[in-house]
Design brief:
Layout lengths: L26 H13 L9 H12 L4 E5 L2 H11 L7 E5 L5 H8 L3 E5 L10 H7 L4 E7 L8 H11 L2 E5 L7 E2 L2 E2 L6 E5 L12 E5 L2 H11 L23 H7 L6 H19 L4 E3 L6 E3 L5 E5 L5 H10 L15 H6 L1 E2 L3 H6 L3 E4 L1 H4 L2 H16 L8
Parallel strand pairs: 2-3, 2-4, 3-13, 4-5, 5-8
Antiparallel strand pairs: 1-9, 6-7, 6-11, 8-9, 10-12, 12-14
Helix pairs in contact: 1-8, 2-8, 3-4, 3-7, 9-14
The structure holds pyridoxal-5'-phosphate.
């Protein structure tokens, strides 16, 4: 047996283990969770932790207001509803994103328009948005995909000219920044998720963030059965639901805000080291749009050279101990969603769809040391004849 034998052929795997995600509770989280459990004040209407978390997280993202809800899907629904979007309206959604972007629009009764993305950075652009606009377009839902902020300058330009709203889906972009400003208050309203896989998590959780006091009041009311803040318990001024977060979730999330920057730095060390070590191999890190200040690196997207066999590469990498993900299929390939959406041509995405693979957050949390092992595995696999689809 030679040292160079691939693991998929019975050789020794190049990677051993990766950090677990989420990390165990730290001392501050444990103390706060214990407090809440002991107090019996578990609901957001009783304790003050959901309020405190909303304020702290909004401040960290240079925004004035936030409303805590049960998950990121609900946060998108509340944001849409607070903007008054409903039946007959269209919302521009990138074709390359998580299914919740489209299904939240459907939940609000509106129609998603599955819009093409840049073949290089995989975000919406002014050009792709213009292809998707119609007289019914009410909002653009931009996604800060993988922690990489969308090219907001050109997107905000198109939105202002057309007089339509911009929703930032920042479910994957806690702490990211564009043009020197944190994501979250770059558009009209933004949403975050704290589901298990995200860069800050309480198992589940969501947040609506905005600088606009009126939108914030509407969002609060929608998530609190139509009440007004400080108003009567049985005073319902609008149609709303109980969509609240619990105090236990807030107790896990409050101390995490202080750790966010350090964790983003670790994932960037991984990404930078990997990009450096990959050199000129036929697999490359997807570069973020111009104007990116902080890519929070929730995931690392890699692009294979044309004609390579993604399935074989993924299998060979898994054998080397480097788990990779093929990522989203594209919303237009999800039949029940496509049937309810307005579809347009997406040639830019379709040309690269089958060449993208992801490295997930636990792998990225291994920092520069982990990147060295990952680069060795990638080198070994992508330079094999079989990776070329031969
Ligand atoms: C995770 C995610 C959501 C949905 O968040 P949940 O908390 O799982 O409901 C929405 N959009 C994007 C881009 C996501 O990654």
């Amino acid at each position: 047996m030679t040292i160079d034998l691939l693991a998929i052929d019975g050789g020794t795997a190049l990677c051993s283990s990766w950090p677990s995600w989420p990390p165990p509770l730290d001392a501050d989280q444990r103390a706060l969770v214990d407090d809440v459990l002991g107090s019996g004040l578990w609901g957001a209407a009783q304790g003050g932790l959901c309020e405190r978390f909303s304020e702290d997280f909004a401040a960290r993202h240079a925004a004035a207001h936030a409303v805590a809800v049960g998950n990121g899907t609900l946060a998108l629904f509340v944001a849409l509803r607070a903007l008054g979007i409903g039946p007959g309206d269209e919302v521009i959604v990138p074709v390359y994103t998580f299914v919740a972007c489209a299904t939240a629009v459907l939940l609000a009764g509106a129609t998603p328009v599955l819009t093409d993305v840049s073949a290089s950075h995989l975000h919406l652009t002014a050009e792709t948005i213009q292809e998707a606009m119609s007289p019914r377009t009410r909002a653009i839902m931009v996604v800060h995909l993988a922690g990489s902020p969308a090219p907001m300058a050109e997107i905000l330009d198109v939105a202002r000219t057309a007089g339509i709203a911009v929703i930032e889906d920042a479910a994957q972009a806690h702490g990211a920044a564009y043009d020197g400003r944190p994501v979250g208050a770059l558009g009209d309203v933004s949403t975050f998720s704290f589901q298990s896989s995200k860069a800050m998590t309480a198992g589940e959780g969501g947040l609506i963030v905005t600088d606009n006091a009126e939108l914030a009041a509407r969002a609060w009311s929608i998530a609190n059965v139509g009440r007004t803040r400080g108003g009567e318990w049985y005073g319902h001024q609008t149609i709303g639901w109980n969509l609240r977060m619990t105090e236990i979730q807030a107790a896990i999330l409050i101390p995490w805000i202080g750790r966010l920057d350090e964790e983003i730095a670790r994932r960037n060390e991984f990404a930078d080291a990997l990009a450096r070590e990959l050199g000129e191999t036929p697999i490359q890190v997807v570069a973020p749009p111009e104007g990116t200040t902080i890519d929070s690196r929730h995931l690392l997207m890699l692009r294979l050279a044309k004609g390579m066999s993604r399935d074989w590469v993924a299998r060979a990498l898994a054998a080397e101990g480097l788990p990779v993900d093929l990522g989203y299929p594209g919303l237009h390939r999800i039949e029940p969603v496509a049937m309810k959406s307005r579809r347009i041509r997406t040639p830019r995405f379709d040309a690269v769809a089958d060449r993208i693979i992801w490295l997930r957050q636990p792998v990225l949390m291994s920092g520069a040391d982990g990147a060295h092992a990952a680069a060795a595995a990638l080198h070994r696999v992508v330079t094999d004849r079989r990776a070329r689809g031969a």
